[in-house]
Fold this protein.
Amino acid sequence: MLTSAEINDLMYQFFILAVQIGAPVLIISMAVGVVISILQAATQIHEQTLTFVPKLIVIGCILVITGGTMMQHLQDFIVQIFEMIAG
């Protein structure tokens, strides 16, 4: 049976993992959105798809580049959880 301290440590590790996996996608998506917004303000073109499509492409590229690493971190965490349960 897991103790309260072990569960708290596991939840902390999960939170850190979620931030590590989600942060690159969110930060780069936000940066692309700001750049597109500046370009829209400068050119006075206010089309919704103009912000959506570049973000979608950039997020897809980020996931292709870093997806393997993200998946490896998730697999390691899940193996750690199962070892704690079994052991």
